[in-house]
Amino acid sequence: MQAFSHLFFSFLVILFAISCSDAFNRNDFPGEFLFGAATSAYQWEGAVDKDGRTPSVWDTFSHSNNRGNGDIACDGYHKYKADVKLMAEMGLEAFRFSISWTRLIPKGRGHINPKGLLFYKNLIQELRTHGIEPHVTLYHYDLPSSVS
């Protein structure tokens, strides 16, 4: 009986997936609707100790009590060109990302990190080169530890 239940449930899942597969397409959305993806610096960039970035409150929190951390994350800091290429191949029109305060202004105020600024400039240029509209979040909960 249990094998039949699993088989029947699997059949229902497949039937549901088939019935939903053509439920929507781009023509069902207004012309100004943008299809895109989003992430935050801490979840995507990694490279926590590269090019002048300093620790954020997320670094401190995630390293306490043996929690998972974003030290490498998706390594977008090094792989952004490949990521943007994948976005373009998927047909995405927009990408929302956050700017890491600790990468751009390592001490929380004052000096701007030229390598951090160059990273975001290059990312935005890469997005535009592929016809993807950048949307920037200026703060996504990555307060520099030195400021908290």
Tag the structure with descriptive keywords.
148 residues, mainly alpha, Transcription Regulator spoIIAA, 3-stranded parallel β-sheet, 44% helix
Blueprint (SSEs and pairs):
Layout (H helix, E strand, L loop, with lengths): L1 H19 L15 E3 L2 H4 L12 H7 L12 H15 L3 E5 L2 H4 L9 H16 L3 E5 L11
Parallel strand pairs: 1-2, 2-3
Helix pairs in contact: 4-6
Order of helices and strands: HEHHHEHHE
How many DSSP helices? 6
Shape, principal axes of CA atoms: extended
Lateral arrangement of strands in the main beta sheet: 1-2-3
| Architecture per CATH nomenclature, i.e. the level-2 architecture | 2-Layer Sandwich
Query: Biggest β-sheet, characterized?
Result: 3 strands, parallel
CATH topology heading = Transcription Regulator spoIIAA
If you had to describe this structure to a student in words, what would you say it looks like?
This protein has one domain (37-148): 2-Layer Sandwich (Transcription Regulator spoIIAA). The relative contact order is 0.19. The N and C termini lie far apart (59 Å). The chain is mainly alpha-helical and 148 residues long. It is built from 6 helices and 3 strands. The protein has a 3-stranded parallel beta sheet.
